[in-house]
Design a protein that fits this description.
By secondary structure, the chain is mainly alpha-helical. It contains 20 helices and 22 strands. Strand 3 and strand 4 form a beta hairpin. Helix 6 runs antiparallel to helix 7. The chain is globular, with a radius of gyration of 28 Å. It starts with 18 loop residues before the first helix and ends with a helix. The structure holds 1-deoxymannojirimycin. The site of 1-deoxymannojirimycin (DMJ) has 8 residues, from helix 19.
């Protein structure tokens, strides 16, 4: 008002600017706005700003940390899909940071994990976690029936005992070897070995899903924190493609599918990428060893042959890597292996254990359902199951292989024990390795989808092989089984020399008990499983963890001083599941990789199945 009265002053705007001044100011303002938007959308590393401005912040613990590392968009709270399947709470969900996320829903604490809208690892739409959880047929950890019943209380006590064994194994690892690959319980220190290429924490990654399953919440959080803060991928050693895949990739994938925590998904994909150089061969059959080069691509070492069980046990994990990353390269690699094996000539329909990745020829005619061959067969039937029974190729290859195995390798001993021998160019070794004892479970798992006329037969074959494997335990002094056992007259299902009398906490026998229990509910499998628990307690438990034994035929234990990571991943998990209800990690929803890491069955509609899972 005062200014209006001053002579010569012409008010030009409510801000008191003249027209030219206003023009210059507007010009400046629009320039500034353009610059800000440019920075927000176009400049690299702008994800954080984008999050601040464009995406509602989430309470998902840990996601922001990973977002900073990877540039990945953080998890968002999603509206629950209509009529969602009940999902189990993730351990640690009661921590204050996560309370805003999960909502109670008819007695179930529903985990509202992240939906992967835009996958910045590969930059395309991929995976909807909430939708995935809603498609599961059963709550991940089961419906928890009334355990106050008398019959349940014994089973519950047995399960609690196994949980205590897991806690004991974990706590000793934590105390004496945290971050190392495995615990040495006698010397109370860590062991790294040379198969993981400098990667560390194998026991941690292998334990994640077992800790989750047993609801060892505090321990799960310890493991997760280590993965977030200390699991580094910029290593440069030589690694076994197979071992890294089944333990690390499998463990991380399972941990992601169980919890929805981005850190597991992102690290699984990054590690998967580090394995890809192994496939740079003339045939696409990968070499067994990959050399990680720090922070960049490595190269595969020279080597004359690749092992069937190794290159044949990538399919499950690699399909999931594609599923979670949107990157087709993983699926292409394993589809190529499948195609190669489908088309190659097979002596008598059998798959020899060694193949040259250069020439594409079998290197020797040694066939085994134990070590060197085992999990290739396992992955065929599990590919079929994981594809929600759409992967016909895997199904056909599995049943054809099983038929050949039965024709040429399966035998019955004079004492009536059924076993799977090994084949060397037509000559049989009448022995089974402990590793081959997984086959009882595999054959049981596959029995239901065999031709009608074969189903009962396969169920019986599975039961007989499992009985034989039990005999290898029952005939030892410790009630634990040897690494290999023979069927020589007068001494069946026993090792013949000290060098094959050791037990390194392997899972295959209890793995078969678990599958046979789920199929038959015959109480004998729980009885046999409990015998193993008692034997482990008596002979393998030491002051600072569980140890393998040098000789199962001696009741004075000589320890091997190793608590293998697969003891926590597999042996204790399968034992726990043996004493759990069938809907805990239901076989309708999950397949276990060969390191016992649960991977989900693809329940997508048939169109999506065809596109993503075959
Ligand atoms: C595990 O690492 C896996 O089960 C693999 O398939 C075979 N060997 C060990 C356990 O014995």
């Amino acid at each position: 008002m005062l200014m209006r009265k001053v002579s010569g002053f012409v008010p030009a705007s409510p801000w008191g600017l003249r027209l030219p001044q206003k023009f210059v100011f507007l010009l400046f303002l629009s320039g500034l706005v353009t610059l800000c938007f440019g920075a927000l959308f176009l400049l690299p590393h702008s994800s954080r700003l984008k999050r601040l401005f464009l995406v509602p912040r989430t309470q998902q613990p840990g996601v922001e940390v990973m977002a900073e590392i990877t540039g990945h968009q953080p998890a968002q709270e999603q509206e629950s899909p209509p009529n969602p399947a009940p999902a189990a709470p993730a351990p640690g969900e009661n921590n204050p940071r996560s309370q805003a996320g999960p909502r109670r829903r008819k007695g179930w604490l529903r985990r509202t994990g992240p939906t992967v809208h835009r996958n910045e690892v590969q930059g395309e739409d991929t995976f909807d976690f909430n939708a995935f959880r809603s498609r599961l047929r059963h709550p991940v950890l089961g419906t928890r029936t009334d355990e106050s019943k008398e019959t349940q209380s014994l089973v519950r006590a047995q399960r609690e005992k196994i949980k205590e064994m897991m806690q004991f194994s974990w706590q000793n690892y934590l105390r004496y070897a945290m971050g190392r690959n495995e615990l040495r319980p006698l010397t109370k220190d860590g062991y790294d070995g040379n198969i993981f290429g400098g990667l560390t924490g194998a026991t941690i990654i292998d334990s994640l899903d077992t800790l989750y399953l047993m609801e060892l919440n505090e321990e799960f959080q310890e493991a997760k924190t280590w993965v977030k803060e200390s699991f580094h991928l910029n290593v440069s050693g030589e690694a076994s493609l197979f071992e890294v895949n089944i333990r690390y990739i499998g463990g991380l994938l399972s941990a992601f599918y169980l919890t929805g925590e981005e850190v597991f998904r992102v690290k699984a994909i990054k590690l998967g990428e580090k394995l890809l150089p192994a496939f740079n061969t003339p045939t696409g059959i990968p070499k067994g060893i990959v050399n990680f080069k720090s922070g960049s691509w490595g190269w595969a070492t020279a080597g004359s042959s690749s092992v069937l069980a190794e290159f044949g046990s990538l399919h499950l994990e690699f399909l999931h890597l594609t599923q979670l990353s949107g990157n087709q390269v993983f699926a292409e690699k394993v589809r190529n292996i499948r195609k190669f094996l489908k088309n190659i000539d097979k002596p008598f329909g059998l798959y020899p254990n060694f193949l040259s990745p250069v020439s594409g020829n079998w290197v020797q005619h040694h066939v085994s359902v134990g070590g060197l061959g085992d999990s290739f067969y396992e992955y065929l039937i599990k590919s079929w199951l994981m594809s929600a029974k759409t992967d016909m190729e895997a199904k056909t290859m599995y049943y054809e292989a099983l038929e050949a195995i039965e024709t040429y390798l399966v035998n019955v001993s004079p004492e009536g024990l059924t076993y799977i021998a090994e084949w060397r160019g037509g000559i049989l070794d009448h022995k089974m390795g402990h590793l081959a004892c997984f086959s009882g479970g595999m054959i049981s798992l596959g029995a239901e989808d065999a031709k009608e006329e074969n189903r009962a037969h396969y169920r019986e074959l599975a039961a007989q092989i499992t009985r034989t494997c039990h005999e290898s335990y029952a005939r030892s002094d410790t009630k634990l089984g040897p690494e290999a056992f023979w069927f020589n007259s007068g001494r069946e299902a026993m090792a013949t020399q000290l060098s094959e009398s050791y037990y390194i906490l392997r899972p295959e026998v209890v793995e078969s008990y678990m599958y046979l229990w789920r199929q038959t509910h015959d109480p004998i499998y729980r009885e046999w499983g409990w015998e193993v628990v008692m034997a482990l307690e008596k002979y393998c438990r030491t002051e600072a963890g569980f140890s393998g034994l040098e000789d199962v035929y001696s009741v004075t234990p000589t320890y091997d001083n190793r608590q293998q990571s697969f003891f926590l991943a597999e042996t204790l998990k399968y034992l726990y599941l043996l004493f759990s209800e069938d809907d805990v990690l239901s076989l309708e929803d999950w397949v276990f990789n060969t390191e016992a890491h649960p991977l989900p069955v693809n329940h997508l509609d048939s169109l999506a199945k065809t596109r993503n899972y075959q």
